[in-house]
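## retry 2 of 3
previous attempt timed out at serialization; input unchanged, resubmitting
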Amino acid sequence: MSTNTYTIDELIKNHNPFAGHIVVRPQQIWGKSFPDVPSINAHASNAVFDAVEKIRKGESETVGITIASEKGAGKSHIISRIRHRLQTEDGSLFVYMSKYDNLNQIKSQFLQSVASSLRAFGSQKVMQWQEIAAALINEAKQWNYTPQQYINMYPGWLSKHSTKAIVNLTESVLKVKPEITNPYIVKAILWTLSPVHINYASYWLSGLELAQSQAEAMGLPNPKSEDREAEALSTVRQILDITSDYKIPVICFDELDNLEVSVPGFTTAQVIADLVKDMYNSLKKGVFLLTIYRETWEDQIKILHQAEAVMDRLVSNQVDRLPIRLNFLTPDDVIAIVRQWLQEFYEENKQTPPHSLYPFDENQLRELGKERPTVRSVLKWCADNFVPNEPIIDDPTNSKRSTTNTTSAWTSTTIHPVKAYFDNELANVEASIDSLMEEEATITEALLLAFNILIGKTLEGVTIESIEEVEPSAENNGFMDFKIIGNKRKVRIGVDVVQQDYNVIGAALGRLIDYKKFDLTRGCLVRSKIISQNAKLARKHLKILLQKKGGEWVGLQSQDIKPLLAIYFLWYKKESYKLTEKQIFDFIEEKQLAINNPLIREILSDPSGQESTNLTDDGLPISIPKPIANADNIDLNL
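## retry succeeded, writing output
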C-alpha cells in the first residue's frame, strides 16, 4: 500500500462525507450546500428558472409550481440548487418557509419567514433587505450606488442629520411610488442600511413589537397585538410588491407533509395551498414553489373545496395541471452523484484517490442504480459502506457492500455506528451556529431531549425524576419551556430559553418569577445576550429572579449547545438514517455528551445570584454613531 493510499484510508476511517447529509436541513438551503449534479432532475429546477425568465421578459406575472414526488427523491436538493443559482444572479430574491409551528397564525408566521429570508445574503453579498433598500433610494434619487456604499454612508448621514435623513429618503421614495399605502414599511426597509438599526428594522418588519423607546426613535409604530394576524398578510403583500419592482421573488414552501392540523381541521399542506391561492390572486409578480409527497397531493389537495381553483394556481406552469414529478435515479445518475460527492471530499482534504469512485466499485454502484433508487437511499448506502479497501465480491447479495445490506459495513470497524452521523451533524451545526442561536424552539428541543435522556441520573446534587410541561398552560401562554423535577419533587426548576428582546423577555421573566402559580422552586433563564437597560420591565423582573427568588441566568454559550443540537438533529432524523434510538442513546452515554455538558450542569447547579457573563451585545444602542471619515459624500439637501 502506498503512503498516499494509506493517508486516504485513514481519512476514510475518520471522516464520512455522506453520513449526516441524508436529510437536507434548512441551514443547507441557505448556507453551504452539498455536492450537486445539475443534470439530475434538471426539468424541475429549470421550470423555476424558466418561470423567472418569463416574468422578467413580461411574458408572465405570477407562476405556481408544485413538485410532488416520493419521500427521499431529492425535493430539498432541488430547492437548494435553485437558491444557490438565484444567489449568483442579480434579478431575483429567495423566500423560504419550512416551519409551521402554529397553523392558526400562518399569516404571521409567513411574514416572519419572509422577513427572515430577506436577511439572507443576496447576489451583492449584503442582505436582500439592503439590496431592496438601495434600489429604492437609487430610483427615488436617480443615483446609482451599491448597497455597500449606502451602508458605509449611513452613519455619516445619521450623525449629521439624525433621523431626518431617513424621513427625507422615505418621502423621496413615496413620491415616485404613490401606490405604496404603508409608508412605515418603506421607512423600515430604508433603516436596514444602517448597521446600528438593521436588527431592529428587520424585527419590526417581521410584525413583532419593538421596545417603545426604540420604536419612537426610529419613527415606527408598534403593531397592536389584536390586529397582528389580520395585518400580517397585507404587510407581506406590500413587501413583496415593493421588492418585485426590482427583483422577482421566488417563494418556496417546503416540508408540507407534517402531521400538524389547524383548529378547523386542515393539514399543513391544505393551509399553505389556501394561502398561496390568496397570494397568487393579489401578488404583482413572483413564483410560488411548493414541494410535497405525491400522496399528499392526491389525498389532501385534490379534495379541497374549490380544489380546481387551488390546483390551477399551484401548477399554473403545467399544461396538464399536474405537479412536476422527480425521476428515480439511473445507474449513470448514481455514478455522477457519488463521483461529485467524492471529488469535493478529496479536494477539500487535499487527497488524490486511486480512482474517482474510491473506495466504491463502479459495477456495484451501477447495480444499485438498477433498483431505481432515490437520492436519499443512495446517500444512505454510501454512508453505511464508506470504508477503505474492502474486497469487492461479484455477487452483490453476498458482498459486505451489498445494496440490500446497509448495516454490515459497521462490522469491519470498532467505530460506533453513530459516530460518523454525529460528526457530520456537528459539522452542520458548526456551519450554521449563528442562525441556530436565534432558534429558541430548536434549542429548547435539544435541551428537552438531553434532560429526558438523563432521567434517573444524579448530577449537581439533583436526581432527575421527570421532565414536565408547564401548568397552568393558559397563564404560561407558551413562554416557559419546561420543568425539571428532581429529589422527590423538592427540586422544580422552570426553564425558559429566550433569545428575543423587547416585550418578550419581560413577559418570559414575569413567568419565571411566579413560583407559586407555576409550582417552582427555581426559575432559570437561558440566554446568550445582554438585557438592555432600556427594557425596564425585564430588568425589574430579572432583579427579582436573581436577588429575591434565588433564580438563575445561565449564559447560553455556542460551544455548549453545539453537541446538544447535533444530538437532537441526529435523533430527529434517526429513521432516515436507519438508526435506532437505543444506538443513539448508547452513543450519547458512551461519549457522556449529556451528563458532562456544561450547559446541562449549569442549569442544575446552585444559582450564583449574578447576571451571566460572556454575553453578546445584541441590544444595539439607540444613539447615533459617530460619523465615519469621508462617508458623508452624498448631499441629501436637507
